[in-house]
Amino acid sequence: MVLRLLNRFAWLVVGALFIFSGLIKLNDPVGTAIKLEEYFTVFSKDFSSIFLAFVPYALYLSIFLSSLEVILGVALLVRWRLKLVLWVLLGLTVFFTFLTFYSAYFNKVTDCGCFGDAIKLTPWESFSKDVILLVLLLILLATQRFLPPFGRNSQKTAGLVVLVTVILSVGMGVYAYQHEPYLDFRAYKVGANIPALMKPSAPLRYEYLMEKDGKEERFTTYPTDPSYTFKKMETLNPEDAPKITDFNVWNDQGDFTQELFVGNRLLIVVHDVKKTHPKSFSEINSLLAGLEKNQTPQVTPVALTSANSQEFDVFRHDVNLAVPYYFADATVLKTVIRSNPGLLLLKNGVVVGKWHYNDVPTVQQVQALL
């Protein structure tokens, strides 16, 4: 009886967790691809440069691996080819456990991206999660006799469910790539007040770990006694820290960040001019022309890029993008919006609109949000 209950618990938890993890990643396949690129870069330095060969295929791997998680989770729950599915799940989990241990022990990738931007886990939390999964899968392998098929034709029905899951999972990932994520968990989502998120929500409190005569002591104020040796400082209320710490915009004349939060601004974000979608600028330019003719309310267009000025000057002339441009960090721009190019509408620093280049809005849609 105990083994049966343990089996059912492990069956439900493992299946549900893989489905949830896969769906979260499929919600934002570009974000998952960025995380994969980070792993490939780390491994290329630590093991072999051959891992760099996988970087161009990160997006395809993102959709494939994320879909595979959902498919295997569903297959487990409907008990389709149970033995094969359990061994594949075990193999994947062993691999993920190695990745998270390596990241945690050597402090290589500080966020594994296991649950995308929805749930942030520290490297050691990710490793602990994978260890628990391993234990549950070993329990399932040892007690799989308690998971018999649902009936005579259950494998056909289960196979059909798995097939539908394959189609829906891949379709979900492809659609999310061609548009923005279905659910936006990032700090720059619609409704976010960027300048407010750049400030702490409450005064930050700190604790100082000091050492004296071989003994460690903690203080909430920095001790004035010079005999103490500083060890480390910890934030006591990290939940009140700024949610955005790296958003900076500048040009050759200086910082432009605060000016960006004044009035209505339409940001045309170009992460990388070499990887952008140039054909989409015909629609973007039509929108800009329409906004220039309809000045009520007034909208000021601004381009943000991580390219250098010479590179971007050539590019914007090629696509006829006649707007002032400023610079920002490439990683920050990819966090702001996954689309390249992408559009972000700010009203006094508040994000009121966000569009992929496949969903360029009309003038009326932009003005309705202001």
TrEMBL record:
InterPro entries for this protein: Methylamine_util_MauE (IPR009908)
Membrane-crossing segments per the record: 9-27, 47-77, 84-105, 131-147, 159-177
Localization in the cell: Membrane
Keyword Transmembrane belongs to the record: yes
A GO CC annotation given for this chain: membrane
Transmembrane found in the keyword field: yes
GO biological process, one term: methylamine metabolic process
Keywords: Membrane, Transmembrane, Transmembrane helix
Coiled-coil ranges per UniProt: none
Methylamine utilisation protein MauE domain mapped to chain residues: 10-142
Name of the protein: DoxX family protein
Native source organism of the sequence: Nibribacter ruber
